[in-house]
Amino acid sequence: MTKIDRRAMIAASGAALLLPRSALAQKRADAFSWDMLIGRAQRLARGPFKVTPFFPGADKIGYDAFNQARFRDDRTIWNIFGDDTGIRLFPLSSTVQQPVEIALVDKGRATPLRYDPTMFDAPTGNAVRDLGPDAGFSGFRIMNAARDGDWLSFLGATYFRAPGAEKQFGLSARAVALNTSIAGREEFPRFTHFWLERTGRSSVTVYALMDSASITGAFRFASELRAQGVRQDVDAVLFTRKAVTELGLMPMTSMFWYDQADRAKRTDWRPEIHDSDMLSIAGADGTAHCRPLVNPSAPRVDAFAERNPKGFGLLQRDRDFDHYQDDGVFYERRPSLWATSRKPLGAGEVRLYAFPTDSEYTDNVAAYWTPATPARAGSRIEASYRLDWSSAKTPAASGVATVDNIWRGQSGEAGGDRLLIDFAGVPENQRPDIWVDVAGGTLVKKAGYPVLHRPGLFRVVLDLRREQGKASDIRVQLRAGNRPFSEYVHYPLGA
Fold it and tell me: 236, 217 in Cβ contact below 8 A?
């Protein structure tokens, strides 16, 4: 997974009237429909892939210049008072140098937007001023009613982001993941065209055409701003130009540098730095799987075989400001993202891929669904799923105790490891059994007890001995007889 500079994904905000007609292309609107978009993606896949050239001068627009070029308030699209679907556009930059085409859809007709450099206020000397009238846009953002923030953003490749209830951006989603865990072979498709249709006061449907060397696709994102966060119902129809070794559907990308369990990776003064801290999977059999994120010493892939899972997601479960002490970007407010297929997925794997990072500006974690059926050349692949961006610690109601915190250190035995897992939601009168399995090491001893003065908190303490120079994979679950009492925890020790 290529390093993503997360700073380049953030732009300035603003406030408020209707888009002047001069911003619309001077030609008649074209007929548009979902079926027409699918047909266009299919025809595109039958021909050779053509790379969109970089626009001259875009490489001179760095992070500061991009953020200083502010889309003018009075040029906001669909700017009706009290409407949450006002749209502002992004200029090109050194991060996104290939322009995308954007059109507005109304009553089955699509009218393209024309780039106009006067849409942006930029200081003298800013390179955005030098792009000229044919530059094009890099993406767009959907504003809230107050026009002081946005609730949906599409910017770069096929990446898009939305906030949870706390109105904070964090991790990203994308259309597909291609060969993400295969060293040197990851491919990044891009959205080349967008069509935007207002569907309600706080809802908009985004249609997108995707293209790359291996695959094309038609996407429909029916997006709604809700009190709990943004909800998106996504439909995708993909066409493969050639075989794809690893196809990732419903992919999401995040950043994990370190947490309280991994102090050795910490070089910053803040106690924890991460956008997400947990992969959660709701299995078809009702099992709630939990894989805490780590910053590995080498690229690592974890695969969880499932058939028709109920959903999966990357969560920001730790929501305590004291654990981060970040008074600038507020990591405890980052959204969780949960994906639920609206059709049976069949057999496949939820995969988690991570590579090492030493900063908070690199997205180094990806999670996605990989079907068991290979994506052969000439295939048509359909997906329908829901994305919920929220501030929930457990988007999928599991009815079992959940992991609250994980701690690591040395055990009393020389060279041994101690792993502590705190489970929340255990009644004080319960003494569940502790089931443990260790691969690549030995369990020396285990213990579990309720934490005094912390109602519902049950601490599991494991002393382990790893094989020399190797990592251990540990599985832990609280059980009451044969009945699961907690999430099924998967933890890599020494990864």
Answer: yes
Query: Residue 136, by phi and psi: left (phi above 0), alpha (psi -120 to 50) or beta?
Result: left
Q: How far apart are CA 476 and CA 235, in angstroms?
A: 36
- Longest CA span, the chain: 77
Residues 488 and 477: beta-carbon distance below 8 Å: yes
Write out residues in the chain with pLDDT < 70, as ranges: 1-28, 80-82, 397
pLDDT of residue 27: 58
Please tell me the distance from the alpha carbon of residue 246 to that of residue 238, in angstroms, as a whole number. 14
CA–CA gap between residue 23 and residue 71 (Å, rounded) = 13
Position 447, amino acid: A
Query: From the CA atom positions of the chain, what is the Rg in Å?
Result: 24
Cβ(5)–Cβ(361) under 8 Å? yes
Helix (H) or strand (E) holding 42: helix 34-46
Structure confidence at residue 16 (pLDDT): 27
pLDDT in tens, 402-460: 999 999 999 988 889 999 999 999 988 889 999 999 999 999 999 999 999 999 999 99
Q: What six digits make up the tokens of 28?
A: 């008649």
Query: CB–CB of 451/458 below 8 Å?
Result: yes
Name residues whose C-beta falls within 8 Å of residue 80's C-beta, 6 or more positions apart in sequence. 18, 86
pLDDT of residue 81: 59
Closest residue by Cα to residue 338 from 326, 348, 350: 350
The one-character DSSP state at 22 is G
Helix (H, G, I), strand (E, B) or coil at 120: strand
- Residue 125 backbone class (left: φ over 0; alpha: ψ -120 to 50; beta: rest): left
Give the three-state DSSP class for 299: coil
Q: What is the Cα–Cα distance from 455 to 422, expressed in whole angstroms?
A: 12
Task: State both tokens at 306.
Answer: 């499932």
The encoded tokens of residue 474 equal 């540990």
Interatomic CA distance for residues 379 and 219, integer angstroms: 16
196 in helix, strand or coil?
A: strand
Secondary structure percentages of the chain, helix, strand, coil, to 5 = 10, 45, 45
Token readout for 291 is 């894989």
DSSP H or E run through 68: helix 63-68
- How many residues appear in the chain? 495
Calculate the dihedral angle through the C-alpha atoms of 306, 307, 313, 319, rounding to the nearest 10 degrees.
Answer: -70
Q: What DSSP assignment string belongs to 310-351? A: SEEEEE-----GGGT--TTT-GGGPPEEEEEESS---EEEEE
Helix (H, G, I), strand (E, B) or coil at 127: helix
472: tokens are: 């251990």
**CA atoms of 294 and 354, how far apart (whole Å):** 8
Sole residue written with tokens 């915190």: 405
